[in-house]
Amino acid sequence: MLRCAGRLASLLLAALLSASSLILVAESHEDQGFHGAAGSRILLQDPHQHTHDVHCSRERSRAAWEAIDEYLMPFVEKEKYELPSKCRLRPDNDMFREQEQHKIHFDINDWRCGFCKKAFRAEKFLDQHFENRHKNLLDNSEGRCMADLCGALHCDLMMEFKKPKSKCNAAAALRNRHLCESLADSCFPINQGLAASRLHEFFLRQFCDAHTCNRGAKPFPKGGRKQTNRFYLALCVLTLILLPLFYLIVFLHQREMKKGVQDLRRFSKIGQKKKPS
């Protein structure tokens, strides 16, 4: 009897130990499953925590800034005028400005990222790289999309789009003119001195007057930075061509003069020898 009771007790103890071990294993698996599930939820949520959709055309923003830099800033610099902080034409109001300044252009097929030094065959691939890898550098706050100003700044002309064959849209021209005049008022308040007043009038003539269905009105009638550079470049090339030609003509003329003098001297000596003694 005692032996049977001992055997039963040992069997019961083994059963209890095996049951408790099974319970612990099951709990550990549940805990691991819970942590794994929680981790997977965090990983799925992380990529969306800092995602900000950018509804702003990089290409048109670049065209807007090119219009400002080429046809406005030379005259602003000449007046030594500082654009007010509320002016949307300021360079620091362009959300893509930092990325654009970190473009390194070595050759026609060699573009580099200034942040990570990766190389690309074309600028459009570098733009895609900025969008995918350095999107966190964009300050996508209100009022920083330069493309919103394209209607006033003639971006289509800067992007060399062909003129549409359809008739002029008077309502769109009027909207663009109002936007253009509002930029003139905010960037060059006429009550801020003579420089601001002159630039206000200049901006209206340079950008705003062309927003009309009158075919005679053209944008940028005052010219810009590129025209000035081309003029000086043409002048320098012409000078480099004409200056050696001028010296060549002077050299040939002097040589001919010396040759003529020598011939006269020789002829005079010959004439003196022929005289009777």
UniProtKB/TrEMBL annotation:
The keyword Transmembrane helix applies. PROSITE patterns: ZINC_FINGER_C2H2_1 (PS00028). Residues 1-28 form the signal peptide. The chain crosses the membrane at residues 231-252. The keyword Ion transport does not apply. InterPro entries: Znf_C2H2_type. Keywords: Membrane, Signal, Transmembrane, Transmembrane helix. Residues 113-134 form the C2H2-type domain. This is C2H2-type domain-containing protein. It comes from Urochloa decumbens.
